[in-house]
Structure formats: structure tokens, C-alpha cells
Amino acid sequence: MSDRYQKGIEKLKIMNPDSYKTLEENLEDIAPDMARYVAEFAYGDIYSRSELDMKTRELVTIASITTLGSAQPQLKSHIHGALNVGCTPEEIIEVIMQMAVYAGFPKALNGIFSAKEVFEERDEKIGNSE
Fold it and tell me: Is residue 108 over pLDDT 60?
């Protein structure tokens, strides 16, 4: 295993280990290298940089995926990750709402509905995240 891969796996263990396991399982029979690339590049190279903390990285990622408007599974995974690294539901909703200005209301609404699903799954409540 490469150092990049190991660094990536360590970040993923903090953020959302189940999501990566699912990704690996879904790709193993068609493109197993793709899961490794995600671990090495996205998490080993980028997420492991020290210039931004994990909360900031997840909020930026949520904003970016929200603007795509068509990547709900990935958005939900990063909402889980954001909660796992200490972001509050209120911070997540605020970031998604701001994307209405730049990406439009339909994409922001899709993001909010994805967040709602994650919050319900985890029994997270808005306003009770102290």
C-alpha cells in the first residue's frame, strides 16, 4: 500500500469509513482502481493537506456538490462526513442555502432535501447541536 493510500484511508476513517467501504464494494467488479484513486488523490493528497481543517474542507465540498445539483449520493456522504468532523446541521444548511445565490434555488432545495434525509437518518435536529 502506498503512503498516499494510507493517508487517505486515515482521513476516511475519521470522516465516513462506511461510505468508502461501500464505494470499494460497488467498484470491485468493474473498476477497482477507481476506489484506490479516490483514497489516494482526494483523501491522501488533497484532504490531508494542512492548510484547511476538516470542517472547512467538508463545508466547501458540500457547497461544491450542491452546485452540481446531480450528485445526491455524494452530497449525502459528505454531509455525513461533515457531521462526523464536527459541523453542525445549522452550518450545513447555511452553506447549502447560500448556494441558491450562485447555483439557483432548485439545486439548493435538492441539497436541503438531501441534508434532511441525512439528519433524519442520524436523528440530528436543527437547533439542538450544542
Answer: yes
The domain 52-130 is placed in CATH, from the list 1.20.1290.10, 3.50.50.60, 3.40.190.10, 3.30.2420.10, at 1.20.1290.10
Local structure of residue 112 (DSSP, 8 states): H
In the chain, residues under CATH classification 1.20.1290.10 are 1-50, 52-130
Q: Read off the pLDDT of residues 84-103 as tens digits, 9 standing for 90 and up.
A: 999 999 999 999 999 999 99
- Per CATH, which fold does 1-50 belong to? AhpD-like (1.20.1290)
At 130 the pLDDT is 45
Amino acid at 11: K
pLDDT of 129 above 50? no
Which DSSP symbol is given to 49? -
Q: Positive or negative CA dihedral for 89, 91, 93, 96?
A: negative
Sort 97 into a burial class: Cβ within 10 Å, 0-12 / 13-18 / 19+.
Answer: middle
pLDDT at 19: 82
